[in-house]
Amino acid sequence: MAEPKTKPTDQDPKDFLNTIEPEQKRVDSLVLLEMFTKITREKPVMWGSSIVGFGKYHYKSERSRQEGDWQLVGFSPRKQNLTLYIMHGNEKNKDILTKLGKHKEGGGCLYINKLSDVDQKILATLVENSFHSKRMYS
Fold this sequence. Notes:
With 138 residues, this protein is of the alpha+beta class. It has helices at residues 13-17, 23-40, 94-98, 120-137; strands at residues 45-47, 51-54, 57-60, 67-70, 73-77, 82-85, 104-106, 109-112. A 6-stranded antiparallel beta sheet has the order 1-2-5-6-8-7. Strands 3-4 form a two-stranded antiparallel sheet. The longest helix has 18 residues, at 23-40.
């Protein structure tokens, strides 16, 4: 059974986010850090070199033998966009997603270019829904 490559690290998430360029992506990432911390009441933890995660649960894949730990919710300021790991529990809330604003979905993630493209109250609701949905199963 292969070990998951992305694991929690000791790196300070705020230190990581303060290195993000361009500036707008750094500012958006720091806003997300505050939003996720407030909603989850969890301490942010770096997962690998580029994901800021909140909470943790253990998973076992039904399709393969892989199992491991993963954050309940998280985000990563990628070169192309802000990647948010918040789609679990939001499959039932397609109506909320239609009110979010400019975004893409795929692979269990939500992709946005910048926070000004979306309604942050709707985004906060999606984060909360996902966090509580996963928390019930962890």
